[in-house]
Amino acid sequence: MTDFSILDLVPVREGGTVGEAFAAATDLARTAEAVGCKRFWVAEHHLMEGIAGGATSVVLAHIASATSTIRIGSGGIMLPNHTPFHIAEQFGTLAALFPGRVDLGLGRAPGAGPELRQAFRKDLHAAAESFPHDVVELRALLTGDIELPIRATPGHGSDLEMWMLGSSLFGANLAGQLGLPYAFASHFAPDHLDAALEVYRREFRPSKALTEPHVMVAMNLFAAETAEEAEMLASSQMQSFVALRTGRPGKLPPPVANYRDSLPAPTRAMLDHIGQASAIGTPDQVREQVQGFLARTRANEVIFGGPTYDPAARTRSLELAMAALAGMRSEG
C-alpha cells in the first residue's frame, strides 16, 4: 500500500496576490487532509515573484493551524541558506506546537545568484560544501545523539521526521549513509532518478530513526473529467517551466488550450522529458500512470506537485485523483 502527499510551492498567479496564494495553499491543505493525504510539504524558494513559500517555517505554522491531522513539512529547507541552529529552533518550535505532525526535509542546492548571496550575507557555495557536516550537526541538535557545546531550545528532543531531498546521486548516497528517508525531485529533475534510488538502497545503513530504506518520489498531477481539460490545466505549469528554462520566470500564467502543440519541437521535447514523472488525464488515466511510476521506482510514497491557475481546479484534481487511487492508499 502507498501513501500519497502534496507538495506546494504556494504559487502566486498572474493578477493575484501573495495573500491569495496563502489562502489557496490553506484550502489545498484542508482538502488534502480530507481526502486522506499523509503530508503537506512546502518548498523554500527565494527571489521568485511567482512563489510565496520563502519563509517556509512560518507558512507551515499557518497550514498546521488550519488543519488537524495531516503532517506538515518542508520539501525542502535549503540548509546552505541557514545555520543548523536556526533550523533546529524553527522546526523544534513547530514540533512543540504540532506534536507528531512535523517533517523536516533538507536540500543542498542553494539555488542562489550573487543577489541572494548578498542578501543572506553568506558564501552559499561554501555552505553547500559543508552540507553533510551541517546535516549531522542539525540532527545532533534535534536528537542529542552527538554531544554538542550548545542545546537548542526549542529543538532538542523534538519529535519530528528528518528527510533527505535530492535530484542527484549525492543526496542519495548521504541519505543512505545517515539512515534517513529519501525523497527524489523527479517532478522536475528526473535524469538521475533510477540511479539515485539504486545508490540510496545500496548504501542504506539502519539508524535510530529508520531500520530500512524508505523512498518518496515526486510526480506532477493534473486530473480532470476529460484528458483535454487535464492537459489544459497542466499548461500553466508548462508555461512556467518554459519561462524558467529561458530565463524569464514570473507568476503562474493562465492556462492555454493546446499549448504543447503550439511549441517548437525542441521545447516540446524538453517538456516531455521533464514530464516523464507526471500523471495527467482522467482519473483512470492518472491511476494507470501512477501505478506505472510506482512499478518503476518501487517507492513507498508519492508526493504530488502541480499548480493550477484556478486554485479550485487543483483541489478538484486532487479529489478526483485520490478517489481513483483509493485502492492503493495506505490504511495505516
TrEMBL record:
Family the entry assigns: To bacterial alkanal monooxygenase alpha and beta chains.
What are the Luciferase-like domain coordinates in residue numbering? 3-295
Source organism, top-level taxon: Bacteria
The signal peptide, as residue positions, is none
SUPFAM superfamilies on file: Bacterial luciferase-like (SSF51679)
| Name under which the protein is recorded | LLM class flavin-dependent oxidoreductase
Q: Which residues cross the membrane?
A: none
Instruction: State the organism of origin.
Output: Qipengyuania spongiae
A Pfam cross-reference name? Bac_luciferase
